[in-house]
Design brief:
The chain is an alpha+beta fold and about 500 residues long. It has 20 helices and 23 strands.
Length: about 500
């Protein structure tokens, strides 16, 4: 028997099938495009993506026919909700978190007492949250809203289309601003305030709960076993942390993808005043009894992609023709020592503590002697300074982090990890599987279906540490001085930007 874990992201999906002993039996990826009907709008074609996901599942089912899939679970991006009917028909596209619609509702929620709202929902009112998009749809597309049975996140949508009841887990529910993080239910107060009907939302439960089985119709179409268990998944950041083995208080995932994010786990919610000062959220983890808070930067690894697409087009074409990874070539150009560059990596809207929706990056210290390798390393240094600031903010808010585990595509790079550990001044553990969201979903599938007696047992079997990166004391000291100078950049950007 085998276990399937599927991760649905903003621009692509990946899935893996593991044996009960943790052997990789099959994997598959798909990419898709964001739909932009108008300036500021950002959607996914939910019907088209569901067809791609079905193709992925069918391919995996065929590949692993000798080891039939016993259970599956899904991790997904937060915020994006798709309208569906009672007969499991997709009624429209989902609106992504960075879609501009819902600003009026965000402003309305922001007028509430921020301490009260943070304590209730675990979040401050911000535009990316998904609940405001539903209110916009109610007011601007009343026909679709009225005809919708449930609005489902992608982890919930996949299981629903395969035959499960409409459920979402606590972590994905938190991404809506409509959830009560203390009482683990939809917030009646918030729903009443926004006139959002409760019946349009799915039931909520703990990730790892069995919510149904694969229907005969889905089994015949996709080659899955009839009755394979459908297990409630989670927000991709939580699933990724789980896939890295973050299952104890004091552990944190350090996600190094397009979006760089610290996901810190703890078992007691810190004082709300400290969270409010740092503008940190609270979300239920995929692991029962734990919470997580996030500190991230939307620039993240996207800055490296921007550099590749803007300044290394020839090298990218040559690497593609030769079957090489151009990032390996670019990162190999970085000097060993810290650069003299100071980069405020606000190339995209930021997370806490600024929540600045108007990007304004700074690059200081360029000279005629600056090499391309210096430039690349300076960009990664700037991104990491932002996360070092986040570690300090979390500590001040009462969130203790004793161990960091690296995940995402960037975690495959030894040089990038060494820069990170030298700036953060903390060891970084790299699991063998760094694309951890699909693995986290697989862990939920296995523990939820009873293949493993507990999540802890599943992690012990499926998560292995590849290497630990330690800070170099001399380099760490140099970066400490540079970080002190870096902290003057954001106030400077505020004085320079056009009003």
């Amino acid at each position: 028997m085998s276990l399937l874990g599927l991760d649905v992201g903003t621009t692509g999906a990946k899935a893996i099938v593991l044996s009960e002993e943790g052997r990789l039996l099959a994997s598959v990826r798909r990419e898709y495009d964001i739909v932009r009907p108008k300036p500021g709008w950002a959607e996914l074609d939910s019907q088209a993506i569901w067809r791609q996901l079905k193709d992925m599942i069918r391919e995996l089912a065929i590949t692993t026919v000798a080891n039939p899939i016993l259970a599956l679970s899904v991790s997904s991006m937060g915020e994006a909700y798709t309208p569906v009917s009672r007969d499991r028909t997709i009624l429209g596209n989902c609106l992504l978190g960075f879609d501009s619609r819902g600003a009026e509702t965000t402003e309305r929620l922001a007028r509430l007492d921020p301490l009260m709202f943070l304590e209730r929902s675990g979040n401050l009112a911000s535009l990316p949250s998904g609940g405001q998009k539903l209110i916009w749809l109610r007011d601007n597309d009343p026909e679709t809203f009225a005809g919708t049975y449930k609005f489902l996140g992608w982890a919930d949508l996949v299981c629903y289309m395969l035959g499960a009841d409409p459920w979402t887990d606590y972590s994905l529910a938190s991404r809506s601003l409509l959830f009560d993080v203390q009482r683990t239910c939809w917030s009646e107060e918030t729903l009443d305030y926004l006139a959002m009907p409760l019946e349009k939302l799915p039931s909520v439960g703990q990730a790892g709960t069995v919510i149904g089985t694969v229907s005969r119709e889905a089994a015949e179409e996709l080659g899955l076993p009839v009755g394979a268990r459908l297990v409630l998944g989670a927000h991709d950041q939580c699933a990724s942390a789980l896939g890295a083995g973050v299952i104890q208080p004091g552990q944190a995932a350090y996600g190094m993808g397009t979006y760089i994010c610290i996901a810190a786990a703890y078992d007691t919610i810190p004082p709300t005043e400290g969270l409010l000062a740092a503008k940190l959220n609270v979300e239920h983890h995929a692991v029962p009894g734990l919470f997580v808070s996030f500190y991230g930067n939307l620039s993240g690894g996207a800055v490296l992609k921007w550099f590749r697409d803007t300044f290394a087009q020839v090298e990218t074409r040559e690497a593609l023709a030769d079957g090489r990874d151009v990032y390996d070539q670019l990162l190999a150009e970085m000097p060993e020592s810290p650069t003299d560059l100071l980069v405020l990596a606000h190339f995209a809207p930021t997370g806490p503590p600024y929540f600045d929706e108007h990007p304004y990056a700074l690059i200081a210290g360029l000279t005629l002697e600056t090499t391309r390798g210096d430039f690349i390393k300076g960009l990664l240094e700037g991104v990491t300074y932002y996360l070092r600031q986040g570690l300090e903010q979390m500590t001040t808010a009462g969130i203790v982090i004793k161990e960091l585990r690296a995940t995402g595509g960037g975690a495959r790079s030894n040089s990038w990890l060494q820069v990170t550990t030298d700036i953060l001044g903390r060891p970084l553990l790299r699991p063998r599987v760094t694309e951890a969201s699909a693995l986290g979903a697989t862990i939920l599938a296995g523990s939820g279906s009873g293949v493993y007696s507990t999540i802890e047992e599943a992690v012990r079997i499926l998560v292995k540490i590849d290497r630990t990166f330690e800070p170099d004391p001399r380099t760490e000291a140099l970066y400490a001085g540079l970080f002190a100078r870096y902290q003057s950049l954001y106030p400077l950007s505020q004085s320079l930007r056009r009003r």
